[in-house]
Amino acid sequence: MEALLGITGKGYTIIASDNNAARSIVKMKSDDDKQKELSQNLVMTYAGESGDTIQFSDYVERNMRLYTIRNNIQLRPRAAAAWIRTQVAESLRSRKPYQVNMLLGGYDAPSNTPELYWLDYLGTLVQVPYAAQGYAAYLTTSTMDRYHRPDMSLDQGLDLLKRCIDELHKRLVIDVGSFTVRVIDQHGVRKVDIS
């Protein structure tokens, strides 16, 4: 019962994920952070099998850090998304594929553009203006489709996110609980409280 949301606007990307850790019908904890800050302008949020998500997200985080140390430069969001997609596609062809779905949100400083990528466990990668993964996709995609505009201010983007989360609370049978929200813009990554 995982919910990942991403929205881009004028100069920012918003990434949100629910805080529940559950297996079958049991909620094990409600303060699980399903996001990794991969660099100053890049955040990955993930959902899937709990062992795969933790192992794969740590693998990606460490390799991004290693690339930065070796080359003294951080990967741009598009390059990072392509590298992560390659890792998922290669694992798919192995004996133990990762069952991980992701949203990758970032801000490309050289071109001053926000970027959001939707990536699934089959290695499908798409750049999108807004996205949802998990059960959130069934209930919030139409809301984002109706109200999203590329020139939205940050406040308007956060209002759209609140609207999507309210829709989940109203229509989803299971309580999705609270969300972790991060904004990525030219100033870097910061956590935002939307309650």
Automatic annotation (TrEMBL):
Q: Name one GO molecular function term.
A: hydrolase activity
The protein's location, in the record's own words, is: Cytoplasm; Nucleus
Instruction: Pull one GO CC term from this UniProt entry.
Output: nucleus
Against Pfam families, the record matches this protein to:
Proteasome
Question: Which GO annotations describe the biological process of this protein?
Answer: proteasomal protein catabolic process
Against InterPro entries, the record matches this protein to: Ntn_hydrolases_N, Proteasome_beta2, Proteasome_bsu_CS, Proteasome_sua/b, Proteasome_suB-type
Keyword set for this entry? Answer: Cytoplasm, Hydrolase, Nucleus, Proteasome
Q: How does it assemble?
A: Component of the proteasome complex. The 26S proteasome consists of a 20S proteasome core and two 19S regulatory subunits. The 20S proteasome core is composed of 28 subunits that are arranged in four stacked rings, resulting in a barrel-shaped structure. The two end rings are each formed by seven alpha subunits, and the two central rings are each formed by seven beta subunits. The catalytic chamber with the active sites is on the inside of the barrel.
Family named by the database record: Belongs to the peptidase T1B family.
Could you tell me what this protein does?
A: Component of the proteasome, a multicatalytic proteinase complex which is characterized by its ability to cleave peptides with Arg, Phe, Tyr, Leu, and Glu adjacent to the leaving group at neutral or slightly basic pH. The proteasome has an ATP-dependent proteolytic activity.
- Protein name, as recorded: Proteasome subunit beta
